[in-house]
Amino acid sequence: MGLLRHREVKCLAQGHTADKWQSWDYYYYNYDIIIIIVVFVKCLLCVRHCTKRWGGCKQTGLGTVPAPHGAYRFNPHFTDEGAEWASYTLGVFICLKCSGIHRNLPELSRVKSLQMGHWEETQVKFLAQHGNLVARGTYEALVPAYYYQPNQADCQVLREQWIRAKYERQEFSSPEQKLPYSNGQREGTLWKRGRDQAQYHPCRFLLSERDSCLKYFSKQDSREPKMTIQVDRINANFQPEKTGQAHGLQLTFLQDNRTRNLFVYHPDGKEIVDWFNSIRFVQLHYLKVAFPKARDDESPQTSPSKPGLPFRSQPRDGFKRRWFTLDRRRLMYFKDPLDAFAKGEVFIGSREHGYDIRRGLPPGVPQGHGTWQHGLTLVTPDRHYLFACEMESEQNDWFSTFSRVIEKPMTPQDHASEENRSSLKGESINPIY
């Protein structure tokens, strides 16, 4: 019986219907003993092929089920890792990371491993009748265009609040559901990192759809804001590792023609994610007003940034270590990852406008610094910029990231950003030749 249940769950994870595995029912029941003997003998013959990755036999798979490829089409948000677990109360297949979040919702979701779990017949049938596609039609039927749907690479707080919003709060199941991040105004306290200090202090923040801006006040009872930021200039990204806060949010924007960073957090995960999506809501509204033909997926200032730490080259001083961030088409560098202001930035346009990225450094230029031997050359219409990475994998990652940006056609918002960049003050990245 245990072997039968195990095969049925694997069959469902691979996308087969209940009818298909039921048609095999007779075969497995009548040859149960023979199958067990054959599997046992095969396992003994290929013990040397056992691997740590699956924790079982490489040829027979006894005691394990490899990541089910058929589950990929069931779970579009976590396709890279595959579904190794399933919730037998919600009827969905989930990845390993999300299984831990589901365990924290015992009243709503009970999970089992597809590899090691013991599955009852009723649980298998429930999975067969539901699955991720059915669940999406129920729990994700009304997800707003501005709401950020995380993937497997996103941080814990984004994935957890996405799961809780769907299954616990059911925010996207009913049109009568009032979303806390869609009323056009939000006010509350966030802990902000000091510009010249490493300490966080509580500040009052006010987000207004009517004024298309985000304001923050240094004190709770302050009447005048310490700073007013236009929403079309904000890019919000979660950076828990960079900030040292599990709910750390980085706000990047232009202030006095210089790129500025604000680092904030809130101890409550739901609160900080609601702020994040509230900013996206106001930005999408502004985008629709400024660019009526813009699509819902073109919200320009909420794209994930690409952080990294290669060297950059100067004509006289050689390579210096700097922290780089690629925010859409803006490449910025900082002396320290938590600097309030960028020391310089470069706009990266499309290939048809004369931009390109090349592996390696030009002839005659020293190939990197010390162990940083993997060079990159960024070509712009006016100058070339040289960078060096320590690892070849990092070089490949940055090359792919630059290539995606350069190959993508520029939008009207991108052209507007390029015009704003021409008036930037502060240190610029020096040309090489």
β content, as a range?
15-25%
CATH architecture of the largest domain: Orthogonal Bundle
Question: What would the CATH topology of the largest domain be?
Answer: Annexin V, domain 1
Name of the CATH class of the largest domain = Mainly Alpha
**What radius of gyration results from the CA coordinates?**
26 Å
Largest sheet: 7 strands, antiparallel
Give the total of beta strands: 19
Unreliably modeled segments: 46-81, 422-433
Give the helix level as a range of percent. 25-40%
Number of helices: 12
- Which strand order does the major sheet show? 7-6-5-4-10-9-8
Judged by helices, strands and strand pairing, the structural class is alpha+beta
**N- to C-terminal separation?**
73 Å
Shape: globular
Indicate the mean pLDDT: 78
Taken together, the total number of domains comes to 3
Region (Disordered): 295-314, 410-433
Subcellular location: Cytoplasm
Organism: Ornithorhynchus anatinus (Duckbill platypus)
Keywords: Cytoplasm, GTPase activation, Metal-binding, Repeat, Zinc, Zinc-finger
Structure report:
It is built from twelve helices and 19 strands. The strands form four sheets. Strands 7-6-5-4-10-9-8 form a seven-stranded antiparallel sheet. The chain has a five-stranded antiparallel sheet with strand order 13-12-19-18-17, with helices on one face. The protein has helices spanning 2-13, 18-23, 25-30, 32-45, 96-103, 121-129, 132-139, 156-168, 240-243, 269-290, 392-407, 412-421; strands spanning 85-87, 92-94, 111-113, 185-193, 200-208, 213-217, 227-230, 235-238, 249-255, 258-265, 306-308, 311-314, 318-321, 323-327, 330-334, 344-347, 356-359, 374-379, 384-389. With 433 residues, the protein is an alpha+beta fold. Mean pLDDT is 78; it is low at 46-81 and 422-433. InterPro entries: Arf-GAP_dual-PH_domain (IPR052589), ARFGAP/RecO (IPR037278), ArfGAP_dom (IPR001164), ArfGAP_dom_sf (IPR038508), PH-like_dom_sf (IPR011993), PH1_ADAP (IPR037849), PH2_ADAP (IPR037851), PH_domain (IPR001849).
